[in-house]
Amino acid sequence: AGDFRYAILERLDDTSDLIFSQPQSLVRLARFLVKAHVNSGKWTGLSAKPFVLGIKSNRTMKSYFVGLQCCRAGEMQRNAFGRAFQYAASRIEAEMKHNGFDSASIELNTDDVHRFLVSLHDTLTRGF
Fold first, then answer.
1. Nearest C-alpha neighbor of 9 from the set 48, 66, 49, 89
2. Residue 107 pairs with which residues in a beta bridge?
3. What gap in Å lies between CA 67 and CA 51, rounded to an integer?
4. By CB atoms within 10 Å of each CB, which of 5, 40, 69, 77 scores lowest?
5. Distance between CA 99 and CA 104 in Å, rounded?
6. 45 versus 6: which is more confidently predicted?
7. 8 A C-beta contact, residue 66 and residue 30
8. Are the CB atoms for 25 and 31 separated by under 8 Å?
C-alpha cells in the first residue's frame, strides 16, 4: 500500500511554470498520464499504483503536488491523498496548505519536498 509512482516537474520555462503551478492544471496532466498508462496496459493489475505529480516552481519557490488513484477506465475510487498529504506534512512539521477545491493537492516549501515524499511513503505504508 505504500508504493506509489511519482514525477516532479522541474526547471520549466516561465509559461509552463505558471500553468502547472495551478492545481487544476497539474491534476489534468496527472489524469492524462494515468489514463494513458492505464489504457496502454502498463498500469493495470498489480502494476496499478497511486500516482503523485509535483512541480517545483521557480516562480514562487514553492512546490505543488497532486495525488490520484490508478483506476481502470470509467472506474471511480475514493481519493485519500488529501488526508495522506496532510498527515505526511504534519509528521515532518512542514508548512503546507491545501490548494483549490481538490483536497488531494498540497503546496509546500521546496526545501521540504524530499522529506515530504519519504513521509508520504511511510504514511501510506502504515495505512495511516
1. 66
2. 64, 97
3. 6
4. 40
5. 9
6. 6
7. yes
8. no
